[in-house]
Amino acid sequence: MLTINHGTYSSDDRERVTEQVHAAGDKFGPLLTRLFCMRTGYCLSFCLVTVVLISCTSQRAVIDRSAMEKILWPGPPEKPRISYLWNVSLLSGSEGSRAASFLAGEDDATDPRTSERLLRPYSIFVDEQGVLYITDPGAYRITIIDLKSNDARNILDAGTQEFLSPIGIVAFQGKVYVSDSLLNKVFIFDAEGRLVGELQGEFKRPTSLALDRARGRIYVTDTLAHVIYQYDPEGRRLNALGRNGSEAGEFNFPTHIWIDRAGKLYVTDAMNFRIQIFSPAGVYEGSIGMLGDAYGDLEKPKGVAVDSDGNVYVVDAIKDMVKIFSREGKLLLFFGQQGRDFGQFWLPSGIFIDEKDQIYVADTYNSRVQVFRYLGNK
Length: 378
Hints:
Structural class: mainly beta
Number of helices: 3
Largest sheet: 10 strands, antiparallel
């Protein structure tokens, strides 16, 4: 029905090796710089000056709209359903910040937390005011961008604890909720980025978060516990859903989650290679996908989201594409392929669809967020 160009895809080894290589670079780059300073003996005061210059300057997101609405899916002669909008990867500092980087002899800050670029964006959330929230475990931080002014800022820690692996994020009623899968906590911040609390209860590995805005509920995936938890905005645990298994309503390492406008819960049941769907009351309603290499199958499902027409979007990371299914599980369309150009992906992760049907995709190993628009069925 649709003719769309697609690339050649490799096995799961590509993702595993890529993650190991980049993790090593992110981890040991700062260490090598510190060792150099220790050996030379004259770096300390210079580094202090550099840190002050960087920490006192604001950032602005550089939005690249050069391909806006120039790329459509599907291509002619089919009627387009998805259009390309823009992407962001660079967070430019002021002249003072750039001068500090120049004096340090580096294009980006050696510490990944102070990088002026997104490094490994993973999950995305956009609030009703048009503020974009990005977890970036490669930079050990949260990046927040006001899409009206392009002003950007970072949250680097949770009180006295530095982030180790920030994964999930939502914002609600002036608070920001962030999961850290290695600290095994879900933190609550105020609008200024100050730590004000944590979600109650213990976690084995908290990952994705989702918001049911209409009902005032926050959902948390505990991947190693094979459970989805429900919370109120104050952090009280209300309910739990699921257990380990492969039957309907059971999970095998669940990851990403989504709440649609009707309050239905969509769960990426990663190692069962499917998306499971539940009613607002937690009743199993169906599933989408299965393991396989056909376009309607799922090899490495990650982010999941739903547009205003009820179409279900699933990021298939190994295929470097986003697949769109009907509520009944029929493949309708896919977009993306392996690469670095506009509309192409390299091991994408999270996805978010806002009230305007703008589709935000964390293009993780291309170190950017790409944005598309659903054009509707009319």
